[in-house]
Amino acid sequence: MEGIGYKILGALLTTLLAFTVGMFYAGFRRKIIARIQNRVGPPVYQNFLDVLKLLSKKTSVNHGIMQHLAPLWLITMSVSTLMFIPVLKDGLFFTNLNFSGDLIFLLYIMVFGPLGMALGAGQTGNPNSAIGVSRGLTQMVGFEIPWIMAIVALMIQYKTTSVTGLLDIQSQNGTWMMFSSPLAFIAALLAMPGMFRYAPFDIVGAPAELASGPISEFGGKYLSTMMTSGSIFAFVKLTLYVDLFMGGASNLIELVIKTFALYMYPVLWGAVSPRFRTEQAVRYFWGWPLFFGFAALIYAAF
Amino acid sequence: MREKTTTLYLGPQHPGITGNMMVKLQVQGDTVVKAETHVGYLHRGFEKLMERRNWLQSFTIVCRICVPEPDPNEENYSRAVEEIEGREVPERAKYIRVMTLELARIATYLLWYGGQSGSAGLYTMPQWSVGDRNYILDLFEDLTGGRIYHMYIWPGGVRRDLPHGFKDKAMRTMDYLEKRLDDYDKLMFENSIFQKRAKGVGIIDPEKATEWGVVGPPLRACGIKSDVRKDDPYEVYDKLDFEVPAMEGSDVWTRALIRRFEIRQSINLVRQALDKMPSGEYYNKIPNPHKWTIPAGDAFVKTESARGEFAYYMVSDGSNKPRRVHVKGPAYVHGVTLLENLLVGENIADVSFIMNSLGTCPPEIER
Amino acid sequence: MYNDKESQKIVDIIQNFARKHSLFVLAYGTGCGAIEIPPTMTSRYDAERFGIRGAATPRQADVLLITGYLATKTLKRVIRVYEQMQDPKYVMGFGSCAINGGMYWDSYNTINMLDKYIPVDVYINGCMPRPEAVIAGFVKLQKLIQEGKADGWDRYKKNLDEYRANQKKIITNWVMPDFNR
Amino acid sequence: MSSLVILILIIAGFALLSYFGHSINKTAGNIAVFAAAVLIPLYWFTRVDFSETVSFTISGFQMELGYNMYGKLFSLIVMILSPLALIYALGYMKDSKRTGTFYFSFLFSILGMTGILMSRDFISLFIFWEIMTWSSYLLVIFLGKDVEKTGIRYMVFSALGAYAMFMAIVIIHRNTGSMMLNDYFNAFGNFSTGTKFLTGILLMFGFALKSAVMPVHVWAPGAYSNTPMAYTSVFSGALSKMGVYGLGFVVINLFAHANLHFAGTILAWLGAVTAVLATFSAIFQDDAKKLLAYSSIAQLGYIVTGIGIGTELSIFAGLYLAVLHAAFKGVLFMAAGAVERQAGSTDMTEVTGLIRKMPLTFFASLVAIIALAGVPPLGGFVGKWMLYESLINNGNFLMVIMIFLSSTAAFLYSYKFLFGLFLGQEEPEFENVKEASPLMTIPMLLLSVFLMITGSFPGIVFKYIAEGMTDLGFHDVNWQMSVLTNAWGDSVNLQHVTLSIGVVFVVFLIFLTWKGYKKTYYVSTKDISSSGEVIKPEDNMTYSTDFYKPFERVLHPILKRKIEKYYDEFGEGIGALFDFMRRIYTGNGQTYAFYVIVFLVILLVFSKNIFGY
Amino acid sequence: MSENILHNEQKLLNLLEKKFLLKESRIIRAKRVEVKVEPKEVIPVLLYAKENSGYIHFAHMSCVDWIEDGEFEVVYILWHPEEKINLFVKTRVPRDNGSLPNIDFIWRQANTYEREIREMFGLRFEGLEGRKEFILEDWNNIPPMRRDFDTEAYVKEVFFHRLGREDAKDVREKIQERTDEELPDFAKKYSRD
After folding, report:
1. What global pTM score does this model have?
2. Which residues have C-beta within 8 Å of that of residue D365, sequence separation ≥ 6?
3. ipTM of the complex model
């Protein structure tokens, strides 16, 4: 029973860690973009204040049960996904509840949230939300394909379908998968900005086009929950990439360094990019990333 | 039965709309099948108010007609009054006016840089260009005391002479801006995603452009060399050296290129105006404003603003108040008939983008 | 309830601290003052230093900027937008036209006193107010929030009938959804 | 008398009873139907002896009826789904005319399916197959709309399938001298290569046709959407599984055992292509019924892929998906039917915002959609997982990508279905829509409860599948109740998944819903932030037309040629065929039956002369 | 202004005078030609100018309320892109029950101008389509741009006024009586005569 106690404690700590790190990353992102834009920018803890402020809104409006549940689906997805990936390779707390972290399971649970969110956005009856959802799902089809190709290539190459298994193989071989299967890494990396929905792939909530799209009817505690979920999920995605391609991390500092380095890629690209149109985004993903994905598959299979 | 098309209100409260107006879109999928421009959210009844104000009081409110670019209004008003009254303007004042107008054009183009790329999601560009626009506004502040509303060009000349050291400061600012424009080019024009967004979007039929009332950069992007500064030269534009650009293409991208060329030309024009500026009077006296009457008559004056031909039709009945001042901004045609027709068949994603490239500015539509 | 600082609970102080440092401004340029919002937000004046950033829709926004004169047609939309915002919400009147009609005091289409129609927390004077003035206005608003005195949303609910009467005097064709708080 | 014969007689009896009951009085008929819905499964579950065989000889052909475990698995689908659909139909068909014919055909198609699954020889298989086809044909044309196109299409394709099967049977009989299935399977290895292919492919064609695999799926969208929804749930959920049943034993017994793996692989590829293309078609449908029909084709594509691959895990996945598909597609077609009945249409550009009017229907379809999309923690994920793992373990990486593409794109139509019917603006024209009657909602809810249980305890289905697999010659896999394991030893523990998701969900549910000092308001969908404007009554604020226009534009350069070629040119070709066929078939059931019998007789008599080997 | 410079302007006037019955015609200055016509002549003149003379650009359209004469003066301003000439076509219609032909089939942007004039002056255009409300919303007073609409009275009736400036005196009359010598110092700066 001790084990379970530790695991629950670990899960709580991991969630807290993910929240904090994700929030600070978002803060750093705002700061870095501000510096690129020739200004000072908000303090790095600004996002905590935003979340707290939204949480302390006195009223919240919903258009029905699905909208009420939408942020809930999102945060459930982020937190449960976090439960299923190894945050640190070994250690007492942060190995967490990764019940062997099957990759296909991860791929599927990661769409649980957006689907719920889409349903909630749909119930608001705001046409902008619906258009945003239709764009988002379309874009998802775009970036999922190269990303899945990269993952399948890894799975075929190393004959395991679990993150833990891939981590073990990396520590056995002593090399990271970004070096041992570079094509898969490139494909996954190219698909990454789409997953983060930063520019040029911020087409879902494009303010100038859709007035922030699916979230346009969410405010107060709902928006706060969604922001929380977003920051946790950013951490989850980064950790997953680190686990898959950069050999995981054995302590928190290593994790932060690796994830932050990875995070800079979508952030910096996003700072100087305009937005794609939806079909252009999908065509982008079905261009070079798909090519690298195929190459990775062929490399892995033969 | 409800329509099969979806109604989308773009504005008035919308981040993608330029100013306070509304475009009611009927969309099928994400393609616009019908667009209706609704204005009147900014209607203040200027033309009514001017009927109640004497000639000088009216002058103070004309600059409020178009916020992003107030100076062509002042210029138009002053020139209309001068034309009816037959009032002469000193040569120096003319140069100062040209310089002010060109500075205003630069400021507007910088704002356009921000709007055009901001509506495409390139948020760094507005931060840079709108930030740099402040340097122009600083010059205005030195010159007139106001950042936005200058009330500077008035009938008979300009309100003040250039302040001490203004020329150097203006020259330095121009040099700085010219340097910055290269950065803008790298960020915006050389960006392949921006090019993908802009090319082939919002095409105006070049054959019909003049007939449809297209003016300014959109018309020049249709390959037609049309510029009031050349066609109907006012002030001292006939003494300055510049050329009217014209490019084939008539899409958002071409219009952007035209503006990219023109902002550099305006910098050059400011330099020329400062260099060639003669010394002398900057103002011809007007009588006691409350007694100031203007003979009966009418005038139609035009100024090339950053967004195109800005025209005033002024009628005086010989009293101390204007009978009628009718303002026609370029957006009057661009924002209503042209926009409504141009948006049909375009993607929702490009609506705001096209509006920015046309330079739609609601306050001058409804005044 | 929020009249003096002594009566604020610790929770309120924390919440007000968060509120004042995170002001989401609704993207609505109601009048010509909107031209000074981009400079305020962009690199030279950089209002994001204070946690001020734009929000696309009223549901997410905290601050409604009435940037200048308010045409009667816009007033209707402003009321609509204001009622869609979530409590607590703040209104800043911008420029002299919002205060007393300013230059357009005798115009048939612009209202002259904003606070008769929606509650205003902070007025900024000037025509038009410079970005520095705008930021000063925001700082003033932050101060009021911290002290718990920015209670326009509360006044609106309490005096809804009065505000409604004033609003309906101008908006003759009243077809708005109910404000059911 | 044997329990099997009694079962068949009971179903036939109830069919007649409900027909005559309905011709006397609606209530009497409904009571008969209800009794059928209760008693048939009751009898099947309690009285039917699965080890029993009945054999009899008719004009020299030996016929044998008897269950094997593989057939029992599919019977389970039939016996659970059909009664629920019957009960649903009581609510759905309340105000319809000619209900007698409907229930008669319905029960007869159940009879046909039951018979197929217990046939051990080709003759009875064929007869029951024809009963099934025939009765379902009557239901396809029941509503009388689009008979020209849909009805004849279904008829012609069924006939083609029947002929293919029949030819195969004749050849088999010619070669083995027996009509027993087992004799054929045992003798298959000794056939010449040509015969192997001929019989295998002919049989496969017949079965693949029923399970709507891509080249021969053309009949399906129309037939599925034109049938009364009460039956479509069975049509798509159970009847199409008869094709899967056939494909299963063909692929496993013939190809796998005779080392003709590539034939299975071709089938799997066909399945994958079906899945992708049908998903793309489903995305662009505006009618919810059509959407579900294409979705059914896509889902059957997965199943066929799983079966075609022919490894243990893949067949397991295929069978599991077949069971699950019956459940969730049953719910979805029932939900579509409920919406059609209550709101008058299933056109997603018209119907909108029913969630608060029909919450139970929405809940059932939500659960079914989550299962369909394969999102954990519901049952659909288990099947998806096994399918992917089997494909990856096998190294069929291109097929994995295709299935992934298809199932990612499936989110698009899943969402569109829910959004189109239930979410979006609540329009005044649907103000008076009420929730469907309990007769309709209870079957849906029961099935969705089943879907939720399979999410954490798929073992309850595994048991039957494992039995069936053993029957097919795989060794007894010892699947645990809720742990999935693949060949490489990686596993997913579903209870952990459900538990953790559940705990997180509840924690945040409490967090979000706990009122405290915050007030949460409900506002109508007319109170949305429409840029400050007040929505006018004539404005249509529901975004439903061309919902996936960007995606359409993406696919345009890639697939336009193919899809158009496929649907138009192929359709034209088929149309030309129809014109020819129409001269033979009048579209009338009796004529068809007459032709079948004549053809059958001719073939039997002259088979030696026709196939001279 | 020599004859040579005004060649094009004169040519246009001659053409129009020959073809139509003009009430009045003159060259205001270089690049400005004005003709006055009856309302029924508006369409023929405009069509002729567009189709035959190359005045293809519809630059402006305005309306002036001459309440003393009981007439509206409507002016159409055209632009010749090659010859760079503005042609003013003026016509007068009675204020009460006057109407003008709709010209938005010639230039579609005229639709906007006409809708505005219809709304702001209450002048009728025969066969004009388009939304009734262009700028104003729910306006049920006399059209605001008519001279007989008193905006100040309307404002006093409808809107609130902030208190605090009751003691402010109207000094306009007083200033008007001032001679230049009485001007304050800062004002003298601008009026050196």
Report:
1. 0.87
2. D331, D332, D335, D417, D418, D421, D422, D444
3. 0.86
